[in-house]
Write a structure and sequence with these properties.
Shape: globular
Distance between the termini: 54 Å
Strand order of the largest sheet: 2-3-5-4-6-7-10-11-14-15
Number of strands: 26
Strand content: 25-35%
Largest sheet: 10 strands, mixed
Number of helices: 10
Length: 554
């Protein structure tokens, strides 16, 4: 049995006034209200409000919301921090995602009726409390004037669904079914780790459920018989009234594909695109600067350290709210795209993403392990997938990738990983825009996963992952060409470095591995070693396409 650490709600901040907000079905959600000024002389006159709806404890140390509220109130905002339904001090069932649109609407309505509210509300937050912003915006409440979601997506946490006709789909994250067994099982947070060596995850889940003595709605809605409960009242989060958005994405955020999917969806909605502002930073999901490594332990920083980092984290949103909530300044004065060129300290601005002046460059994998300007002779390459000896994930915590900046060069030494290297760069190259890989995949097993990683290899031989993508192929005995989206890049590759590609069939435990027999990876079962094949050379061989702003690839 795993050790389960239960995290109850922290004491409510003495700087706030507790409130219980009644939803349309009678459930009361717990909130902390922060007003400008000292508690004994708070400014209760009508003003603008920032709402933060989160499942991680509005009063706890993990998200340090009291410190964020302190920063916002110093700028004259009223702040409402709320535990979402079923979490910590809030009533109701802990059911992932599906209540956030209606609960967001009802909370906005409550705010507008308070004496300290002038009826204008903005929202801010990361991850799930970025998702609650999309949900509240989809509710159409007119009081919501602007949102600032960070490292999140409208389909955050959604399990991979299979349709009968498809052959290609996403690879399932290992966290997908663990999250409802830890963060969304009951009011308290439950911290525990599965035994990753067993891999019978469904059985371990049932052991934990038996240990806790109750079932969890969020887990049961997804496994083993998924119930597809709608997240958004109109089906499409962008179907209704649009809201100005400052949309922050991290280059190393493992959830970035969800963010970029929303960017693409918004581009098809002129009413949303008209006031959609993009900010791209060299951050991971957990904003690694807010953590520190102490040997094998990861610790939160002190209040003083966090306060020192808050301007960098919060000022872009406050500048955005100044225009769209308070009406000070002109929208045209805000950069439509503000983006960091990783590998430098530069934060650039452009009218579009990708920026103007980019070009695409394709490099071809060769049988001798090169990335070349021209396709070489045709050849078939093979690699094994052994469910008992999986390619390891490089970072101990995928959400805090930059905390450890893992060197992935050793992974390329494995015999179940294909490796391809470019020539050494003679000058700096700036990559800015999408990266894709095309390859034909087949297997002697029924299902094959394909992981492609793009690495920056330094002169000392260390390799930093800068882009990645993965897809799953069903009916894998029949070859199929995969177009693998490696995400977006804003990255400077320095002279003296070279680019490298890794191709493999597992990345464990970040992603659930294939059994080799077609058995469900979450349930596990009988396993078999399989052999994967791809082609290099010729018109249809493995190819990498990058978007280049400055410089020339060898």
């Amino acid at each position: 049995m795993p050790d389960i650490l239960r995290i109850p709600p922290a004491p409510e901040s003495p700087l706030s006034t507790p409130a219980r907000i009644r939803m349309r079905d009678g459930v009361r959600l717990a909130a902390d209200v922060y007003l400008p000024g000292a508690p004994e002389a708070a400014d209760a006159s009508p003003g603008d409000t920032i709402l933060i709806r989160l499942p991680y404890d509005k009063s706890g140390v993990y998200c340090f919301i009291p410190l964020i509220a302190e920063y916002f109130t110093r700028r004259g905002y009223r702040v409402v921090a709320q535990d979402v339904r079923g979490k910590f001090r809030s009533e109701g069932d802990a059911l992932l995602f599906v209540n956030e649109a209606d609960d967001g609407y009802d909370t906005l309505e409550w705010i507008t009726r308070q004496a300290w509210s002038n009826g204008r509300v903005a929202m801010w937050g990361d991850s799930y409390y970025g998702y609650t912003q999309w949900a509240a915006a989809a509710s159409g409440h007119p009081a919501l004037k602007a949102i600032a979601p960070r490292v999140t997506g409208t389909q955050l946490g959604e399990p991979v669904r299979r349709t009968a006709a498809e052959r290609v789909r996403r690879v399932e994250w290992g966290i997908t079914y663990l999250y409802p067994l830890t963060q969304f099982f009951e009011n308290d947070a439950l911290h525990w780790e599965p035994d990753w060596s067993r891999r019978d995850f469904a059985a371990q889940a049932e052991e934990v459920i038996a240990q806790l003595g109750q079932r969890g709605l969020s887990y049961d809605q997804w496994y083993p018989n998924p119930v597809l409960l709608p997240r958004f009242p109109q089906g499409d989060p962008f179907a209704g009234r649009s809201v100005p958005v400052l949309h922050t994405i991290g280059w190393w955020d493992n959830c970035a594909p969800l963010s970029w999917a929303d960017v693409a969806a918004i581009a098809e909605r002129p009413n949303w695109e008209a006031h959609h502002y993009l900010r791209i930073e060299a951050i991971d999901h957990e904003s690694y600067q807010l953590l520190e490594a102490d040997g094998d332990r990861v610790a939160e920083r002190s209040d003083a350290q966090i306060r020192a980092l808050l301007p960098r984290t919060l000022d872009p949103a406050l500048d955005f709210f100044e225009v769209f909530v308070r009406g000070n300044g002109r929208a045209g004065e805000l950069p439509r795209v503000s983006w960091n060129l990783a590998g430098t300290e530069e934060q650039r601005e452009s009218a579009t993403w990708p920026p103007a002046g980019v070009r695409t460059v394709t490099r071809y994998a060769t049988a001798d392990g090169a990335l070349a300007e021209h396709a070489g002779p045709e050849a078939t390459l093979e690699w094994r997938h052994d469910p008992a000896d999986l390619v390891p994930s490089s970072a101990p915590d995928a959400f805090s990738f930059l905390l450890t900046l893992p060197d992935e060069a050793p992974i390329g030494e494995r015999d179940d990983v294909l490796r391809f290297d470019s020539a050494v760069l003679t000058a700096d190259v700036d990559l800015a825009g999408p990266a894709t890989a095309r390859l034909e995949l087949s297997s002697d097993g029924p299902v094959a996963d394909c992981f492609v990683r793009l690495l920056d290899v330094a002169p000392d031989g260390s390799a930093l992952r800068i882009a990645r993508g993965q897809l799953q192929l069903l009916d894998a005995g029949t070859p199929h060409t995969l177009e693998i989206d490696l995400g977006q890049l804003g990255y400077r590759v320095r002279a003296g470095h070279r680019l490298r590609i890794h191709v493999s069939s597992s990345d464990y435990p970040e992603f659930l591995p294939q059994t080799g027999t077609g058995a469900d990876p979450w349930t596990w079962g009988e396993t078999r070693i399989t052999t994967q094949r791809t082609r290099v050379g010729g018109a249809d061989g493995l190819a990498l396409t990058l978007t280049v702003l400055e410089g020339a690839l060898p």
